[in-house]
Amino acid sequence: MASRLSGLLAFGAVLVPGVVPAAAAPAGFVAAAPEYPAVVAVDSVTPQVAEAGKTVAVTGVVTNSGQAALKDVTVSIRQQSAGAVRTRSGLDQIARRGEPAPADGSPVAASRKGLGTLAAGQSSPYTVDVPVADLKVGKGGVYELAVDVAGVTPDEDSPHTLGIARTFLPYKSEAIPHPTQLAVVWPITHTPELVAQTMQDNDPVPVLRDDNLATELAQGGRLHQLVKTGGQLPGLTWVIDPDLLDTVFAMTKPYRVQKPNTAGEPAKESNTVPGTGKDAATEWLKQLRTAVATAGSQVVSLPYADPDLASIAHNGAGLSGMEAALRKAGTAGEVTAEGRLSADARSDVAWPYQGYLDQQIAATARTAGENLVLTTSASISDAPLNHTPSAARPIGNGQTAVVADSTVSDLFQPDLASSQARTGAVQRFLAETMMINRQLPETPRTLLVLPPRNLTAASAGALAEAVSLAQQGGWAKLANLQTVATAPADPEANTAVPAPADYPQRLRASELSAATLGQVMDIQGRLDQLLSVLTQPQRVRGPFSAAMVRSMSTAWRDQAPEGSSYRAGVQSYLVSLTGAVKLTPKSTVTLAGDTGTVLVSVKNDLNQAVGNLQVKLSSSQPNRVNVALPQNVLLEATTSLTLRFPAKARNNGPVQMTAQLMTTGTPSQAYGEPVVFTVEVTSVTSGVLYVIGGGVVLMLLAALRFTLQRRKRAAEPDDEPDDEPEDGPEDEGGAAEETGAAAVEHAPGDEKVGH
């Protein structure tokens, strides 16, 4: 029984993509139970919305997935015995129903068409039609449309049902007083392509990580089709990643593309190739500007590069600089979208990954200035209600959630490239939206459709077709997000934001980790130090700041390896830029004499001048070798400079020295790695030795005199005051010598502190 049920579930799944992942084209020969070996697919339903006096035609393919031939095969449409489907849960039950059941009705004899014999593994197309009157539909509503395949098997020589396929047929019979206001998000997004590197010329040339975007922008590409299809639907809500607009704009001019495995290297002729998408990018941007200007449409600009709000809320909200980064991304997104499209854009909209919301995500969105949150009924459920409430509802703290219907939205999650998948999704969409409207026909309501960010061209075409048919049917009217968000909220709608513990674990598994987000934010600190020494910081600030936000893009959720590679490339390139200004390594320097010069070289491999730096040279034993104060550094592009540090030596032998680049700002910071080397002192002059030796002799004589005086005083009686005047000056002289001796002994320590 289990195998029989699994095979039959596949029949229904062919017609309802997104409900059962097993949905596939007939070529897959989905295994069927022995009792029902015929796999039935529906390619088209015409018309998709039935009316009185019309004839409904269904086309498709029947495949014999059994091991034996099927004889006298016929295809017919079943007439419903239960009438119109009454609830949305009823639609779901039909979609999930397995084996043929009495509820599927009985075949209409007038619709029966013969296919003859089907050998094992053989497929045959079919076309069946039936007058609407023969389906016994009554008033308007949604009806099950079942295609029945019957025939003879070796085990049973009388005709019987061999397989069934189900879809839905909306029937319109009366005027609809209040069409549902339907907002459809039309996502224009892509994984980040621009990298931090540029080819330096009079005008810096942008660099992309690959040239895949050129294919998507070209005729027939995904983004090309999205703009073409969306441009035919006035009233859409275009939700756009401004980083994509910047990238496409960059492609309208000469650009370069990184060769494989060069992500962290400075861009050069040798590791990049010319980009090929200039013409496609120019035309696409032109078409997009025209499309978003369609009457009734609205542009929503996501934060620049679409940062992963859920990952940040769960793993990075407390990181230093994160709040500022999110706010800057929002501002940059709005400015970029409006500038590139010459259109107004709303920028206070949050769209967490797959529309799932919790309290932490809502709080992070609010901190970023996003007061409108796009979410899904899979996250904020209205399950207890017997109707589908309007989409918008307040969730506290000045925020509004616009809740998309997950059943409707998820229809367009897979790639609806096959005719069977497309037909199944379109008919289910029509059924669901008609049912929603008929729940409370006298009450105006709103509905949000939230497809995936990476909506495919085929799925976009299916969505556009479904929306157009629903509008033609009269039960839906396309409206933009602003209209739906400001509509009165249903007082019965759920306004409770789920707790973090209720966030799906399967989504947490793909989040950017706290360590990853921490590494991204560390980029800012290292970047700030680099910018402080550049004479043209603007050439680096913009590309790196954008690349840092791109490193946190939501798009990496579905392309984790590519995201890791992108982040590693940004970090590696920053390290290479910082390391391009460095001290030249050295090992041993010989100082022949008590004075001399220590040479330290600084190299600048950057393509611009650097300043605000100094070289500090320090001795591990300043009492033996003492060096001059730090020296400032100003280096032109791709040049080297050798600094001369005067040094004084007091002893022969090796002394360790450390050279360190330091920034001159407040506070001064070490820049780059220090260079440690040895100064070998030889041939300190005899004059110096004589002075040192003389000092030692004087110290010894003073100590001897002091000792003799103390012995003499101890031998004299206390009652001889006449000797006191003689001792007095000697005591004073001894104290002076002691003070002098102490000064000499402490001199090396004071000198060390001074240095």
Automatic annotation (TrEMBL):
Keywords: Membrane, Signal, Transmembrane, Transmembrane helix. The chain crosses the membrane at residues 687-708. Gene3D superfamilies: Immunoglobulins. Residues 88-109, 711-755 are annotated as: Disordered. It comes from the Bacteria. Residues 717-735 have a biased composition (Acidic residues). GO terms for biological process: carbohydrate metabolic process. InterPro entries: DUF6049 (IPR046112), Ig-like_fold (IPR013783). Residues 1-22 form the signal peptide. This is Glycoprotein.
